[in-house]
Amino acid sequence: MPELPEVQTVVDDLKDAGLIGITIRSARVFWSKTIADLAPNQFCRRIQKRRIDDIWRRGKFIIFDFQPPIHLLVHLRMTGRFNLESPSVKRSKHEHVVIKLNNSRELRFQDTRKFGRFYLTADPLSQLARLGPEPLSRGFTAKSFSGMLANKNRILKSLLLDQSFIAGLGNIYVDEALWEARIHPQRKSNLLSFSEVQALHRAIRRVLRRGLINLGTSLGQGRSNFYSVARRRGRNSDHLQVFRRTSDPCPRCRTPIQRLLVGQRSTHFCPNCQIL
Ligand SMILES: [Zn+2]
Prior knowledge:
- The chain is of the alpha+beta class.
- It has helices at residues 4-16, 40-47, 124-128, 142-150, 156-161, 171-181, 194-213; strands at residues 24-29, 51-58, 61-67, 70-75, 81-85, 95-101, 106-110, 117-121, 258-262, 265-269.
- The protein contains seven helices and ten strands.
- The two termini are 27 Å apart.
């Protein structure tokens, strides 16, 4: 599932492709459930003739701001991705929304697993209000993080995946951050020392920045994997230390990496560096 670095890479690609200032000519929906809360024909009617004013990210949401004002929130979920195509290219059966642009191109939403969702709304902030802070924002400090953790009596791994606690993290970057900070995924959030909180805060930001620099993480060769709009694979999988490296030696101490399930989520850690 795309996490903060992958979603930001998609946003950057859409902007680099020159979509800001482009007007939507028309839209067609081929899988109605992709459009949340609206009938497909209503969605198509409401979005046409609007100009894309900005594209940005909050948590794992991509937000398109339009003029006249309306906002499209997109959640890629497992396999959602955007393709920019010439109208002459035949639509693939996995392309469920086709948006015709006034620059002779089409923005297509491809989603093999069909969990991705579009939310068209006049008030994006109400949808985004329940998200926790952005981990790379200036306001997210070791001190504020310490207060957040102290208020919760929860297993760290599950808490860090909770988008209402902190936005944008998923399974990959949480495992990587906990390893980097030498903290066991099953530790209780309110029992960390301040120096452990500082280490975790630093680690979260470091693994996310590394993911951004490497344009996201693509795992394996499957078609459902993460690809940016520019059809690049993210390079970050070469930089993962523990995620899906079960039995490989820990890069720090050579102890074999272990896998366990925490709240149904596959979790990778070093039993020597990360002690419960
Ligand atoms: Zn280790």
